[in-house]
Design brief:
about 325 residues, alpha/beta, 6-stranded mixed sheet, 3-stranded antiparallel sheet, 11 strands, elongated
Length: about 325
């Protein structure tokens, strides 16, 4: 009954402080009202005990105090509140363009750049349940791994299945952007975003990354570019006659290109040198791109004082009738 209850006049609730004072006064008065009698001995009274009626007599005062408490609650006018919300959500369409070239197996991020990117990306998408997410992968060429969808479970499963070496090696940044743009150009979302994550220099494909950025700008698509890789040298996988081995090689990321691509579309460029900085990059993108949520709230209040007042009156009635009948005192 008292779930989601508010009081129209909560000031009356302070009157409840009088109830324990009245109980204490009743107890004090009862002690003073007991008559005394001086006798030479108590042997004659040892066999006498209080009857149940005597114990129940004090229940009349209890009824009265409970009734008073209920009347105070009724005066405060308890009201149950029914709330209903109409929520209008305009999501954001996001496509992750992920580099899966062999250099993404470098181990400056743990366990390697590709696995770190997959793990952090999954956490980012889980925090955006209202957005449509798509996935494009590229190395020497590019293709759509997952079209825009609100089913993030499917998208995350397809992201998990990505491995380096699925397609011809290389770094076709322009082609990756072009495929991502084709997935977003018809979108009606309030915000269209490409997250471009790469670790190298554009050296393959048929589309220039800057030309792709110009097209993205025309369609109102914003590009956030992430360069994944430490400064200096990192252990890269190299195929040798003795199998796959890791050798320290210089990290080469075309930061000037990625900065221009981002700037042309009012986006931003980030450098992620380790797992922690990559998480911070995604956190910043998450703050920059928020879904718009319009909430209209309806509130309906229902008066709840009547059953409380009726219960109080019933207790007073029982107390009065009991006092006049069963517990009637003779002057």
């Amino acid at each position: 009954m008292f779930a989601n209850v508010e009081f129209a006049y909560p000031g009356y609730l302070f009157l409840l402080l009088l109830v324990p004072l009245m109980a204490a006064w009743y107890w004090f008065r009862q002690g003073k009202s007991i008559p005394t009698l001086q006798v030479s001995g108590t042997e004659a009274f040892e066999s006498s005990r209080k009857t149940i009626r005597q114990y129940l007599y004090h229940g009349l005062a209890t009824f009265r105090l409970i009734a008073l408490s209920l009347l105070i609650l009724a005066l405060a006018r308890p009201q149950s509140t029914l709330k209903r919300q109409n929520v209008s959500i305009e999501g954001i369409d996001i496509v992750l363009a992920l580099d899966i070239s062999s250099s993404m197996l470098a181990q400056d991020l743990k366990p390697d750049r590709l696995e770190a990117a997959k793990t952090v990306s999954q956490g980012f998408f889980e925090g955006r349940p209202n957005d449509r997410i798509g996935l494009v992968v590229f190395s020497g060429e590019a293709f759509t791994q997952c079209p825009l969808t609100t089913d993030h479970t499917i998208m995350e499963n397809m992201l998990e299945d990505i491995k380096s070496g699925l397609i011809q090696d290389g770094t076709a940044i322009g082609d990756g952007l072009a495929i991502a743009i084709s997935r977003l150009k018809e979108s009606q979302a309030i915000s269209k975003v490409i997250i471009l994550l790469t670790d190298g220099v554009n050296n393959a494909g048929s589309i220039d990354p800057l030309s792709a950025a110009e097209i993205a700008k025309i369609y109102g698509i914003r590009i956030y570019a992430i360069g994944a890789g430490t400064h200096g040298y990192a252990p890269y996988p190299v195929q040798t006659p003795f199998g796959l081995q890791y050798q320290n090689m210089e990290v080469e990321i075309d930061e000037a290109l990625l900065q221009n691509v981002a700037a042309m579309t009012d986006g931003k460029y980030f450098r992620a040198t380790d797992n922690s900085s990559l998480e911070k990059v995604y956190s910043e993108i998450d703050q920059l791109e928020k879904s718009k949520i319009d909430v209209t709230e309806f509130r309906k209040k229902k008066e709840e004082f009547l059953p409380i007042a009726v219960m109080a009156l019933l207790l007073l009635l029982v107390e009065t009738l009991s006092r006049l009948t069963l517990f009637r005192s003779i002057p």
